[in-house]
């Protein structure tokens, strides 16, 4: 119950507060306005997107990746490592939080792509906010990594489900208290295995042990 686990966002400048520093584009130009990375397409290509090179990422570890994506046209967004993505379908015209669990592939390059082979044309844009990458194996231990749904729930306690640097992402006692509160609101049917437990039927069903039995007023 006293266990506290800290997680680190491996993506520096994930809120783009330092402009495009550390980020590169694929078939696109990059600009930042009010904390939004604006990706302007220079070629209608399935791999139009942004990259962030991350050093010292252990191969085989599991990572939680997430970002907020705004697309003009509905389509597929890929998030993860170069050549090892998870693909998410997103609606158009609003920011959508996408998240995935991935292991590092051939390259330790954090990447977000939007499949622009559909309605997009050169000069169109899509936008990105709050890029996040956490090494779950380093945080929780091998074999104990949460699911993407569990990480979505853990991250929901942070503003915009995002943080910079290192934060306490799991406190066991707080999680237990929350689970107990949930259980207390849930109704279950239970059966008393003792018949005549109120002795309304006298001593029926009961036998004495080094004693004699009688029943008065139950």
Write up what this structure looks like:
The chain is mainly β and 218 residues long. It is built from 3 helices and 12 strands. It has helices at 136-140, 148-155, 172-184, and strands at residues 4-8, 23-26, 28-33, 36-41, 48-53, 62-70, 75-81, 84-90, 95-103, 109-114, 125-135, 166-171. The strands form 3 sheets. The chain has a 5-stranded antiparallel sheet, with no helix packed on it. A 5-stranded antiparallel sheet has the order 3-4-11-6-9. It has a two-stranded antiparallel ribbon with strand order 1-12. The mean pLDDT is 86.
List its salient traits.
mainly beta, 5-stranded antiparallel β-sheet, elongated
Can you describe this structure in just a few lines?
The chain is mainly β. It is built from 3 helices and 12 strands, in the order βββββββββββααβα.
Topology:
Elements: E1 4-8, E2 23-26, E3 28-33, E4 36-41, E5 48-53, E6 62-70, E7 75-81, E8 84-90, E9 95-103, E10 109-114, E11 125-135, H1 136-140, H2 148-155, E12 166-171, H3 172-184
Antiparallel strand pairs: 1-12, 2-5, 3-4, 4-11, 5-10, 6-9, 6-11, 7-8, 7-10
């Amino acid at each position: 119950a006293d266990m506290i686990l800290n997680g680190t966002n491996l993506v520096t400048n994930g809120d783009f507060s330092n402009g495009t520093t550390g980020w590169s584009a694929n078939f696109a130009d990059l600009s930042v306005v009010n904390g939004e990375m604006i990706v302007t397409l220079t070629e209608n290509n399935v791999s139009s997107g942004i990259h962030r090179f991350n050093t010292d990422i252990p191969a085989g570890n599991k990572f939680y990746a997430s970002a907020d994506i705004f697309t003009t046209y509905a389509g597929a967004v890929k998030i993860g490592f170069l050549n090892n993505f998870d693909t998410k379908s997103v609606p158009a015209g609003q920011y959508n939080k996408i998240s995935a669990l991935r292991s590092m592939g051939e390259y330790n390059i954090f990447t977000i792509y939007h499949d622009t082979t559909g309605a997009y044309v050169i000069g169109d844009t899509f936008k990105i906010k709050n890029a996040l990458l956490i090494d779950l194996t380093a945080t929780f231990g091998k074999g104990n990594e949460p699911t993407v749904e569990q990480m979505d729930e853990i991250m929901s306690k942070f503003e915009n489900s995002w943080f910079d640097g290192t934060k306490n992402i799991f406190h066991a006692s707080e999680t237990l208290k929350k689970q107990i509160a949930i259980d207390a609101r849930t109704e279950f049917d239970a059966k008393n295995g003792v018949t005549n437990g109120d002795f309304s039927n006298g001593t029926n069903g009961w036998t004495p042990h080094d004693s004699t039995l009688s029943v008065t007023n139950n």
